[in-house]
Amino acid sequence: MQYDIAYVNGPRNPDGKYGNLKTRDGLTLMCPVALLGMFQAGQVVDINTRSEVWKGRNGEPDKTMTIVASGPGGARPTPQQAATGAAMAKAGAGSGAPVVGAPRQDGPSPAEAKRMFVSNIVSHAMSSGKFTASEIRVLTQGALEAFDMLTVPALPKVVPQPPPADDFPDSQLQ
Asked: pTM to 2 decimals?
């Protein structure tokens, strides 16, 4: 499912297993620490999730939580991303502040928008299982062309204008 991430937060407890992703529409997704490094505020991502029932504490009722099951496009974290997620958890533990930062209010720059579009298209294509790694360059080129076709304003159609009419009829020109 696709989510528009507003904030990426590390766990409250430095040894916590989960941070969270807050979406623009107010949904909270619990994210394993190893996956936190794969997300940034302002991203629109397609991720796999699962539901888990978490026991309530101190007499609170049980809660059904949405858990992030993969990185963007179904990806698994690299060791570096897992380490980044752990470092984010340690750095932001207990602060309640966004670890990666709040999204920009004016939206992504044109270059960021292009990168996000191309990345999403190629990621979806690769996760479909119908393409191989050797086809990434071709997929990227196709996504770049599609982005340009969708974002470059179409040139206005030039309608030929009729020649200007004479102010005087031919009979008066003698």
From this structure: 0.46
Rounded to whole angstroms, the Cα distance separating 127 from 45 reads 13
CB contact at 8 A, 51 and 67: yes
Mean pLDDT of the chain: 78
Angle at 91 between CA 85 and CA 95, to 5 degrees: 115
- Token duo for residue 44: 């629109």
Give the pairing of strands 2-9 and 44-46: antiparallel
Q: Is the pLDDT of residue 122 over 80?
A: yes
Question: Which pLDDT belongs to residue 167?
Answer: 60
Q: Which residue is associated with the tokens 């982005």?
A: 147
Model confidence pLDDT, tens digit, residues 19-50: 999 999 999 999 988 888 888 888 898 888 88
- CA atoms of 13 and 159, how far apart (whole Å): 67
DSSP H helix total and E strand total for the chain: 4, 6
How far is residue 58's CA from residue 60's CA, in Å, rounded to a whole number? 6
Residue 66 has which token pair? 């949405």
